[in-house]
Amino acid sequence: MTSTASVSTHILDTSLGRPARGVTVRLSARTASGADWRPLGEGTTDADGRCRDLPAPPGDTARVRLDFAVEPYLRERGDAFFPEVTVTFAVRAGEHYHVPLLLSPFGYSVYRGS
């Protein structure tokens, strides 16, 4: 199957003003909103907070999910109020989706970047 989209992400620790290194990011996909999630792969953020090795979703993908395992990273800094962050979004054929995570010990936000 051909890929419908490409997905990339990075994490910025807004409490420190620098990238979050060493966070595991898992990528899953499904064909429709009610379908089962299929794990596609995972990676770990590098010194720039970027996860550079996420696979492309298969051609029948309609939804993508990024699971950020932030607890180990946040515990090193004190507290992990949000131990996991999950972001689900719709994808279209031929599009690139860069979805950054802005993280702090007691909050987070995401957006579609470029």
Explain what the structure shows:
This protein has 114 residues and is mainly beta. The chain has 1 helix and 10 strands. The chain has one domain: Immunoglobulin-like (Sandwich).
Task: Kindly list the characteristics that best describe this protein.
114 residues; mainly beta; four-stranded antiparallel beta sheet; 10 strands; 5-hydroxyisourate hydrolase
What's the mean pLDDT score? 93
Which CATH-level-2 architecture?
Answer: Sandwich
Using the alpha-carbon principal axes, give the shape: elongated
User: Could you spell the SSE succession in H and E letters?
Assistant: EEEEEEHEEEE
Q: What percent of residues adopt helix (DSSP H or I)?
A: under 10%
Reported for the largest beta sheet, the result is: 6 strands, mixed
Taking the alpha carbons of the first and last residues, their distance comes to 25 Å
Instruction: Count all strands and give the number.
Output: 10
CATH class term = Mainly Beta
| Count of discrete alpha- or pi-helical segments spanning 4 or more residues | 1
Q: What value does the Rg take, in angstroms?
A: 14 Å
Give the helices and strands, then pairings.
Layout: E1 5-13, E2 18-19, E3 24-30, E4 38-44, E5 50-51, E6 63-69, H1 71-75, E7 85-90, E8 95-98, E9 101-104, E10 107-110
Parallel strand pairs: 1-8, 1-9
Antiparallel strand pairs: 1-2, 1-5, 3-4, 3-6, 6-7, 9-10
Catalytic activity: 5-hydroxyisourate + H2O = 5-hydroxy-2-oxo-4-ureido-2,5-dihydro-1H-imidazole-5-carboxylate + H(+)
Subunit structure: Homotetramer.
Binding site for substrate: 10, 50, 111
